[in-house]
Design a protein that fits this description.
The complex is a heterodimer of chains A (about 375) and B (about 525). By secondary structure, chain A is of the alpha+beta class. Chain A has a domain of about 200 residues: CV3147-like fold (3-Layer(aba) Sandwich), CATH 3.40.1610.10. In chain A, about 30% of the residues lie in helices and about 25% in strands. Chain A is built from eleven helices and 16 strands. The longest helix of chain A is centred in the middle third of the chain and has 17 residues. Chain B has four domains: about 120 residues, Nucleotidyltransferase, domain 5 (2-Layer Sandwich), CATH 3.30.420.40; about 120 residues; about 160 residues, Nucleotidyltransferase, domain 5; about 80 residues. Helices cover about 30% and strands about 25% of the residues of chain B. In chain B, the strands form seven sheets. A six-stranded mixed β-sheet of chain B has the order 3-2-1-4-11-12, sandwiched between helices. In chain B, helix 1 runs parallel beside helix 7 and helix 9 crosses helix 13. Chain B is globular, with a radius of gyration of 24 Å. At the A-B interface, helix 2, helix 3 and strand 10 of A face helix 6 and helix 12 of B.
């Protein structure tokens, strides 16, 4: 049954998106508010399955880009999000028929809903990651030869720039430089593709999956078994079906620093009853690898999410603290993220881990 | 006036009890605890009279009166005594999609009137201009507020914690249009995070009239007692506000009760780095003090359904206190249900019919209150298990709040501190200081004067040392401007948050300083 994106489903969707953010992706609170506002003002957008797209339909993507702290001040204007799409359409000389999210994890799950509501376009129940990643070229579209560029970068003054680059990595670097001079809260209209290309490359059903996970957290919390409820829900999804508790314990040490503009660090955990049993989770904005008693138990692009062990609330890396009682949940990543081309862009090596990717179900 | 003879009074007006102490130097000369009265002033007058009488003290010897109060928190949470607020947000074209009070519950939005305008202006994250201030739009907004009878205005501008000039300019324009208006500037009370900071400013503005009334009532109470000494109100970071500052920023008193308890515990125990557990009748509040001040919460807090981010002490509240009900049905549970203040009629030792945590402490032989003979029927195994559970709960709470695995000293305060008899895991020692039951009033009596600066600094441009020195100097200046003695101002807290995604070493830096009150010489040499 197709999900109805409305005010009631939106808060569950936002919490599920935070879960799929695997520690990063930005707090969806601001995004949740703007999507809710857009739905109140313009009506809810239609959520469509990727199969409902005509092969020759024009699908475009939208994402916020910049520093999460700046987002907390500048919030969202609204017009600049629409302009990012309009400028891309004008440059290409073609109109979008549907909006596809680039990143379901974190705050970028909400912006496409808001844009679709404002423009009266359907939003596709799919994205390019099924999770969150720190850079523009890290997604299943880029991995399958669909280019991020040309892309349109806009800010709240409705200033804009068009970026064309030889590679999506170069486009990422150029966009970041633009974002700094434009005030670190910009929106990017990008990844234009045909309906057929979307069917071939998108990670499907991820808005519905995020909603179901958020709903499972809420229902599970009411029944005092939030984490079990999450696991039951993951088993019903195709992407995340290999989900399990990797570790149950408390945070005993935390090292965090900023390197190359990213929040990089290590979180160490110990079992409550048996402190000599330990787990280490490394992160670069998002969680990268979980190691239990010396053995890797999950690694990027598979998903690693740290949640409160009682409430199931996803804990972003910047909110991790010594003494928190948590469960570390690991789950399989969507198949599109495990191909050789995909792993070259965002496999373990792309994050400086010197070990080949091994799927969670084989660990 | 020398350190040994001059007196000061600390009062904590809580939701349940009003506590007071008469302090002389470091000595508690007299202490008082009684239920909070409906008319708060009467309770304060009573409290002061009692401690003065007990210590046979002279009114003329009182140098200073410090008051902690929950009245403002309660007013906002209960939506009582709030006034309509005119909200001016200076940020356009940024933020346009989310107008002020966008996520407020309807009842509280109605209580503050829901009047807001958004105008052009604001800065970038690094202090660059984002939009020029639209002065005529502010004047126009002020005129429409005046026409609507609004007498309190909240002003929030984009990145005002980095640069507060536009908020100050807007205040001048508003004052020019509305005589005698109360104005709240967001950068004075909140941090980065526009919605949360703006919310705090609106909350504060809605309390302006009440603040004036409360300050007037306090002043009146003191004048009835013929006390001419200045009085101060304690804030939630362990520092004081002069009465006229409280009238401007009542919101800064939110959660000052737990802070006063923790500061009092530091003072009474002489330990500046510790875990503090304040065990009351229903809950145990566990907090951390570092360098004598409470650690602050880093997450947003929800007050009366409104999201804010202003400074609050980081407190873990456990449902365990002296009145916690012990279930005799297995599995054994203690709390969170409590007989609360009715412990003196409900607990077994006082002839009641409810087994409480206090009964367990008495039965186990480490507390001596009430009639122990009434506990003869309790099974020894039950007593043993219950004692173990009480300690395990507190141990877990301590561990959750600790910053590292290292054992730390634990200071126990509050009436329920008798519940603890055994060494606790994770602690290096457990201290129950004298006068632990009135630690909150002691905390109010020793509060300092503080100053704070927050902004985004570029380490790449000027280097970390220069940026840090600049921030420290600004914080010290702010403390001295607020009334601290410039001889003893110390930096009390530094928070560095590197801005992810921003190359060039941009760092959000927050520095706090605090020092003794300038007018009272005797406090300058005080430890704590």
């Amino acid at each position: 049954m197709a999900l109805n994106v409305d005010r009631d489903t939106l808060s569950d969707l936002a919490r599920g998106a935070a879960f799929l953010g695997t520690g990063g992706g930005g707090d969806p609170y601001i995004g949740y508010l703007v999507a809710r506002q857009a739905i109140a003002d313009y009506g809810a957008p239609k959520l469509i399955d990727v199969e409902e797209l005509r092969d020759d339909a024009m699908v475009m993507s939208i994402a916020g880009f910049g520093a999460p702290t700046v987002q907390l001040e500048k919030l969202v204007c609204g017009e600049e999000v629409e302009l990012a799409l309009t400028k891309l359409e004008q440059y290409l000389g073609i109109k979008a028929d549907a909006i596809i999210p680039a990143e379901i994890g974190g705050s970028n799950s909400m912006i496409p809903i808001m844009l679709a509501a404002r423009r009266g376009l359907p939003v596709v129940d799919a994205d390019g990651m099924g999770r969150a990643f720190p850079e523009l070229q890290m997604n299943s579209f880029s991995a399958n030869g669909i280019r991020a560029t040309p892309l349109a970068v806009t800010d709240e003054h409705l200033d804009f720039a068009i970026v064309e680059a030889a590679s999506d990595k170069k486009a990422e670097d150029m966009t970041r430089a633009l974002a700094i001079s434009m005030g670190l809260r910009v929106f990017v209209g990008c990844f234009h593709m045909s309906g057929r290309q979307a069917k071939e490359t998108a990670v499907r059903g991820t808005l519905t999956a995020a909603y179901n996970i958020g709903r499972a957290i809420r229902d599970g919390r009411a029944a005092n078994n939030a984490v079990d409820s999450i696991l039951r829900c993951l088993k019903t999804t195709s992407h995340y079906r290999n989900g399990k508790i990797l570790f149950d314990g408390k945070i005993v040490d935390l090292v965090r620093e900023t390197a190359r503009g990213f929040s990089v660090g290590t979180c160490r955990l110990a079992e409550l009853a048996n402190p000599s049993s330990t787990c280490t989770v490394t992160f670069q904005n998002e969680n990268l690898e979980a190691i239990v008693n010396g053995h890797t138990v999950a690694m990027v692009p598979d998903l690693i999410c740290i949640v409160d062990r009682e409430t199931g609330e996803p804990i972003p890396t910047q909110a991790l603290k010594y003494g928190q009682r948590v469960k570390v949940i690991g789950m399989s990543s969507p198949d599109q993220l495990r191909t050789p081309q995909a792993l070259a862009l965002f496999g373990p090596q792309a994050f400086g881990i010197d070990r080949p990717f091994t799927p969670i179900e084989a660990l | 006036m020398d350190w040994h003879s001059s007196l000061r009074i600390g009062i904590d007006v809580g939701g349940t009890n009003t506590d007071a102490v008469l302090m002389q130097g470091r000595t508690v000369r007299a202490a008082y605890k009684a239920p909070t009265t409906a008319n708060v002033s009467d309770g304060i007058i009573n409290a002061i009279k009692t401690v003065m009488h007990e210590a046979a003290a002279q009114v003329s010897d009182i140098k200073c009166v410090m008051i902690g109060t929950t009245q403002f928190t309660n007013a906002f949470v209960e939506r009582r005594y709030l006034q309509h607020v005119g909200v001016i947000r200076i940020a356009l074209p940024a933020t346009k999609g989310l107008p002020p009070m966008v996520d407020w519950p309807d009842d509280i939005k109605t209580a503050v009137g829901g009047h807001s305008v958004m105008v052009r202006g604001g800065y970038q994250y690094d202090g660059r201009l984002n939009s020029a201030l639209d002065e005529s739009a502010i004047a126009e907004a002020a005129r429409s507020f005046r026409a609507g009878g609004i007498r309190s205005v909240a002003i929030a501008s984009l990145f005002s914690p980095v640069n507060g000039d536009m908020e100050r300019r807007a205040e001048a324009i508003v004052r020019n249009e509305i005589p005698d208006v109360a104005v709240t500037l967001s950068h004075q009370i909140g941090r980065l995070g526009l919605l949360e900071r703006e919310n705090a400013a609106i909350m504060n503005a809605s309390l302006a009239d009440l603040a004036a009334r409360v300050v007037h009532a306090f002043r009146d109470a003191l004048s009835q007692l013929n006390i001419k000494a200045p009085f101060f109100i304690s804030q939630n970071d362990g520092t004081l506000m002069a009465a006229d500052y409280v009238e401007k920023y009542p919101v800064l008193t939110f959660a000052s009760g737990p802070t006063n308890s923790m500061r009092g515990a530091v003072y009474l125990s002489g330990i500046k780095d510790a875990i503090i557990a304040d065990i009351g009748g229903t809950t145990t509040d566990i907090g951390v003090v570092m360098g004598g001040f409470p650690r602050e919460s880093s997450i947003t807090s929800d007050i009366g359904g409104v999201r804010t981010n202003f400074r609050m002490p980081d407190i873990l509240a456990l449902g365990l206190g002296g009145g916690s009900i012990v279930s005799t049905v297995r599995p054994l549970t203690i709390g969170p249900q409590s007989v609360g203040y009715r412990i003196t009629e409900k607990a077994l030792i006082f002839g009641g019919d409810t087994l409480t945590a206090t009964d367990i402490a008495v039965a186990a032989g480490y507390a001596d209150v009430g009639d122990r003979a009434r506990l003869a029927g309790l099974a020894p195994q039950l007593i043993k298990d219950a004692v173990a559970l009480i300690h395990a709960k507190i141990e877990e709470g301590i561990d959750r709040m600790k910053a590292s695995a290292e054992p730390v000293p634990l200071v126990l305060v509050g009436g329920g501190s008798i519940l603890v008899s055994q060494p606790l895991a994770g602690t290096s020692k457990v201290i129950v200081p004298e006068h632990a039951a009135v630690a909150n009033a002691v905390g109010a009596s020793i509060a300092q004067i503080g100053g704070e600066v927050e902004g985004v600094f570029s380490y790449g441009a000027i280097g970390r040392d220069a940026a840090m020195a600049q921030a420290k100097e600004q914080a010290i200046k702010a403390a001295v401007a607020a009334g601290a003695d410039n001889r003893g101002v110390e930096i009390t807290d530094i928070e560095e948050v590197p801005l992810a995604y921003v190359p060039g070493g941009a760092v959000r830096l927050r520095v706090k300083a605090a020092g003794a009150l300038r007018l009272s010489e005797e406090m300058t040499g005080r430890a704590a």
